[in-house]
Amino acid sequence: MLPYKNGTVRVTSTYGNRIRNGKTEFHKGIDLVGSQKQIAAIADGVVAASAILDKASDTSRTWEWGNYIRIDTADGHRMFYCHLSARYVQKGAVVHAGDVIGLEGSTGLSTGSHLHFEVRNSLGQSLDPTAFLGIDNRLQSVDAASSYYGKLVCDRCGLEEATRRYLDQYKYAPDLWRKLWNAMQ
Ligand SMILES: [Zn+2]
Q1: Does residue 122 sit in the same domain as residue 161?
Q2: 31 CA distance to ligand 1 middle (Å)
Q3: How far is ligand 1, taken at its centre, from the CA of residue 107, in Å?
Q4: Which domain holds residue 99?
């Protein structure tokens, strides 16, 4: 599931090594730009942080994230949604996958509206976020509704992730998933 429910989502920077300003750096998250700006949680969890930190007072460099929300899942993952223009949930709130939690923006160290999405384990080590998003780690455009309704349908029916990805190549897949999910309600 992507952190957007509708529209088209472009992957503008992948997870892992990248070259920025002539230097190689490890990009600990993935950058996404949505045609629709509403950001949705990709998993159930509890809001562990919903804040904006200023550069002067922050020693952990998280000021670079601007307005960010951290959601901790029951299985010990920490999910960070960064550079938001608005936050709709406060620390301590319980959220469910698909809940709208904020708006994509360009706060913190950012040159244009995008979502920096990052996943860490309980030790704070970054993990490949694409495994949680159900997409390949490459530059591409993804239909958010297909990702959202496709996951709901597959979870309900016990279909494998690989099956969803295979069917997603079909151009009518977003419409198919939406209709299937509505028929199941
Ligand atoms: Zn990023």
Answers
A1: no
A2: 5
A3: 12
A4: 8-138
Please tell me the distance between residue 80's alpha carbon and the centre of ligand 1 in angstroms.
11
AA letter at 81: Y
- The pair of three-digit structure tokens given for residue 112, joined into one six-digit string: 């244009």
Q: Is residue 45 situated within a structural domain? A: yes
Indicate if 152 and 98 belong to the same structural domain.
no
Number of domains forming the structure of the chain: 2
Taking only the tens of pLDDT, the chain with its 185 residues reads 899 988 999 999 999 998 878 889 899 999 999 999 999 999 999 999 999 987 877 777 788 999 999 999 999 999 999 999 999 999 999 999 999 999 999 999 999 999 999 999 999 999 999 999 988 899 999 888 888 888 889 889 999 888 888 888 888 888 898 899 999 98
The continuous run of DSSP H or E covering 15 comes out as none
pTM over 0.85: yes
Is 125 in the same domain as 166?
Answer: no
Q: Collect all residues with Cβ–Cβ distance below 8 Å to 147 and sequence separation of at least 6.
A: 1, 2, 9, 133, 134, 135, 168
Is residue 2 in some structural domain? no
